[in-house]
Amino acid sequence: MFLYNLVIYLYGLVIKLASINKLKAKQWVAGRKNWRENLSKKITALNSENILWVHCSSYGEFEQGRPLIEAIKKKHPGYKIILSFFSPSGYEAFKDWAGADLICYLPLDTKKNARDFINIAKPKASIFIKYEFWLNFLFELEKQNIPTYLVSAVFKPHHPFFRWYGGIFRRSLATFNKLFIQDEASGKLLEKIDIKNYEVCGDTRFDRVIEVKENFVELPLIKEFCGNEKILVAGSTWPGDEELLVEAYKLLNLPDLKLIIVPHNVEEKDIAKLTALLTSNEITYNLFSEQKLNKNAKVLVVDKIGLLSQIYHYASVVYIGGGLNEGIHNCLEPAVYYKPVVFYGDDYHKYNEATELIDLKAAKNISSATGLSDEVSNFLNDKVALNGIENNLKSYFQKKSGTTKKVMAILKLT
After folding, report:
1. Where in the chain is the domain with CATH 3.40.50.2000?
2. Which of 300-304, 382-386, 398-402 has the lowest mean pLDDT?
């Protein structure tokens, strides 16, 4: 634990230094200021002995955990939900979400912070979503005999649990009362390290994207921009993705193809960099925030968060960003609309859904602008293949839905 705690301490120090000129780091630090006092006041205001603590790392994990939180609220209305986030990306997007009774940042994972947080919150049970293994928190929960669950987890051979140095992480798996995992492959890996407290239930993200699709709300400006033309939607893009996209879009050179770019970061400097790239390539564009359209512009930059899952509805083909950075983003959000997907890089094997979509011929991975241009063109022009993709994806989502019900049937909340 000494090395782990040292890394945590250094991480906190780096974030504080970065907060001098990085917005997200500044939000990370500011959101944790006086957290003990703030949490105590909010817990007192809840006036409840039935507290359930749910922790999500960021935006994507919240979307994964949301169906379960809503199901728990419905089945156990007497529980008050504390929802914590590690990242500003999640907290800032959902800090006003009405589905939780208290929303906060997770303090840095030191032994004292973990003890104080749990002593203040006094949860009857805790749920961690997918990839959250904060050791001091987990060991404190175990010490206080608080039932703890991990939901929609997936394990891969490269994870530290299965490495020679992963003893302390293997120990953390035993703190969970139940590991609700996505697939049998994860179960086999856990068996190899003698972890048996798991249940294969699937991924709650499928329930979430199906719900979003079923509650789709028209976006008038997007609909007007699209008209009856073919649409390439680029979701959660980073600068490297955007350079690739611009090159591929110019190679395609299709007069009836429009491009919608939805950047991962929509801070002013990020949007300025993207629009400068478009301008330098003599590409006219519209900005969503201006709420007016230049009819001659074939590109729309969506400089607002929270719309992407609806925008995918309008796509003919989708490019998923992130492959040039931290890893590809959510492929299920466009696939639920039966849209073909393209993403960059060969590390997609880390993501079950990406591998499965490729197996269904509903996705392609590329390594160049030429490759992106070719795959988009192929998808746009092969109607037979598109019909097959639609049929495959319908069956896929029908098979994969229902994870939330499976978890709820096993989850022990009294």
Report:
1. 218-399
2. 382-386
User: Do 341 and 335 form a contact (C-beta atoms < 8 A)?
Assistant: yes
Residue 131 C-beta-side C-alpha neighbours within 13 Å: 14
Tell me whether residue 305 is exposed, middle or buried, using C-beta atoms within 10 angstroms of its C-beta: 0 to 12, 13 to 18, 19 or more. Answer: middle
Rg (CA), the chain: 22
> What is the rounded average pLDDT for all residues in the chain?
94
Q: How far apart are CA 299 and CA 305, in angstroms?
A: 18
Q: Which CATH class is domain 33-211+402-410?
A: alpha beta
**DSSP track, 240-283:** HHHHHHHHHHHHH--TTEEEEEEES--SHHHHHHHHHHHHHTT-
Average pLDDT over residues 2-20: 91
Per-residue pLDDT band at 373 (split at 50, 70, 90): very high
State the span(s) of the chain assigned CATH 3.40.50.11720. 33-211+402-410
Each residue's pLDDT tens digit, 353-363: 999 999 999 99
Give the 3-state secondary structure of residue 177. coil
Which CATH architecture fits 218-399? 3-Layer(aba) Sandwich (3.40)
- What pTM was computed for the model? 0.89
Distance of CA 85 to CAs 44, 72, 225, Å? 20, 19, 35
